[in-house]
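Postdoc handover notes: sequence design on the structure in folder B. Input tokens:
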């Protein structure tokens, strides 16, 4: 079961101090329906929600991407399913200034990925390493930060796939990116998706 979309506000104080208001599901779907070409291609189209809250937009985008993946692969194609779900997550980014929102956003995206995976892959064939890879991607891509007043602390991780089943991770400073710099501050070697947790702290 998918987790519900957060409605309205968490508290009046947060609205007053942070301007935090959650977008309703109807509005999210209306906007995404108008921009489907910009978010459905999970392999190549990167999505950034610079004030992601607890993930309302990102959750719906991921739901749509996962539905496409479920239709594209047979249940016998386990490696392809695992890699496709991870790829969908690697091209989604969220930043928010509230720590509890980041925890919730990661958790909600985790459950969407987990539920789809477990609907498509038999219990006896599920791999713990895949779950750990999901955790790592969400840890890097959904991050605590201030896109207005704290850009110097914001980092972005670019996941690329030189060949099927493998990722390379490059990390960039937001300020460097805005200046047009193309040099990453960290790069990991090409790694099979089931071994991503082994290079978590590389």
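Designed sequence:
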């Amino acid at each position: 079961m998918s987790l519900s979309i957060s409605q309205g506000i968490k508290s009046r104080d947060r609205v007053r101090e942070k301007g935090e208001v959650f977008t309703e599901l109807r509005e999210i779907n209306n906007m995404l329906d108008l921009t489907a070409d910009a978010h459905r291609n999970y392999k190549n189209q990167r999505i950034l929600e610079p004030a992601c809250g607890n993930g309302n937009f990102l959750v719906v985008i991921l739901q749509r991407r996962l539905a496409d993946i479920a239709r594209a692969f047979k249940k016998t194609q386990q490696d392809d399913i695992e890699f496709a779900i991870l790829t969908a997550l690697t091209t989604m980014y969220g930043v928010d200034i509230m720590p509890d929102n980041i925890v919730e956003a990661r958790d909600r995206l985790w459950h969407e990925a987990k539920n789809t995976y477990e609907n498509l892959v038999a219990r006896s064939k599920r791999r713990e390493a895949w779950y750990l890879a999901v955790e790592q991607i969400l840890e890097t891509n959904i991050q605590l930060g201030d896109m207005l007043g704290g850009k110097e602390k914001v980092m972005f991780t670019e996941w690329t796939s030189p060949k099927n089943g493998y990722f390379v991770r490059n990390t960039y400073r937001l300020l460097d990116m805005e200046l047009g710099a193309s040099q990453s501050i960290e790069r990991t070697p090409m790694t099979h998706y089931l071994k991503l947790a082994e290079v978590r702290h590389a």
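Context for whoever picks this up: The helical segments are 12-18, 25-34, 56-72, 78-90, 99-120, 128-141, 174-178. Don't rerun without checking with the PI first.
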